[in-house]
Write a structure and sequence with these properties.
Oligomer: single chain
Helix content: 40-55%
Radius of gyration: 22 Å
Shape: elongated
Number of strands: 8
Strand order of the largest sheet: 5-4-3-8-7-6
CATH topology of the largest domain: Beta-Lactamase
Strand content: 15-25%
CATH superfamily of the largest domain: GAF domain
Order of helices and strands: HHHHEEHHEEEHHEEEH
Distance between the termini: 45 Å
Structural class: alpha+beta
Length: about 240
């Protein structure tokens, strides 16, 4: 009988409900490749996935047959040509609104407040997407509006996590942005507009760089601290997909 692993592999500890264990394990080998990796040895792959080398070898043979992995002359493994083909297919079919809007609609349904998705545009921020609260009393920002980077929670998050965060700032602003980075979000009342509260969290690209700020806005009297966690969860759901 095969010996039982002393430590669960990543695939076993994060198995897909109703999925196939062998597929889960093979996918962890693909996911073991990180930004900057050109090739990995069998030992490195086994270490990163917590798979036995013998198990990893069998799975690598199948991945190599499918051209998802290629074995190099020095014995190490790199990603195969099929990965590039699938990436091209994905890039051609990718639609940002099909990824972002469902998450925003779910956030609005859960909070009954307005959600917006802001990106940096020059020295300002652009509201790329907006889903309105069902409440008649709300702020009236719409998609396409250009807003300041240095006011409002969306702008604060873009400044705190973006490449401009260390340039031309006062000591007060530097301390503010450091606190936002430490807690992972920004919440404020009346920062851009009196009587309006906001909660914003960063959305990151797959390479870890900042993509956008996801923002929930509401009248100050309807501010609810419990919404912070919902915004964070929605931003994490979008991160790596945009």
């Amino acid at each position: 009988m095969p010996r039982k692993a002393q430590t669960e592999s990543l695939a076993d500890s994060h198995a897909a409900p109703g999925g196939a264990a062998a597929v889960d394990r093979a996918l962890t080998l693909l996911c073991a490749f990180q930004q900057g990796d050109t090739a990995l040895s069998l030992a490195e792959l086994a270490s990163r996935t917590q798979l036995y080398k013998s198990t990893a070898l069998r799975l690598l043979a199948s991945l190599e047959h499918a051209r998802l992995i290629q074995k190099l002359e020095d014995g190490r493994y790199g990603l195969g040509s099929e990965v590039a083909r699938l990436n091209a297919v994905y890039a051609a079919s990718f639609s940002l609104d099909r990824v972002v809007l469902p998450v925003m609609r779910a956030l609005v349904a859960a909070t009954r407040e307005s959600a917006a998705y802001h990106v940096v545009q020059g020295d300002a921020r652009l509201c790329l997407y907006r889903v309105d609260s069902p409440h008649p009393i709300r702020d009236h920002i719409k998609a396409g509006d250009v807003l300041p980077l240095n006011r409002g929670t969306g702008g604060r998050v873009l400044m705190a996590f973006g490449p401009r965060r260390a340039t031309g700032l006062t000591v007060k602003d530097k301390n503010l942005y450091a606190r936002i980075r430490e807690q992972g979000y920004c919440s404020a009342m009346g920062d851009r507009l009196a009587g309006v509260a906001g909660i914003s969290a960063p959305v990151f690209k797959a390479d870890g760089s900042l993509a956008a700020a996801l923002t929930l806005t509401m009248p100050a009297e309807r501010y609810d601290e419990r919404h912070v966690q919902k915004v964070l969860e929605a931003a994490r759901k979008l991160s790596g997909q945009v």
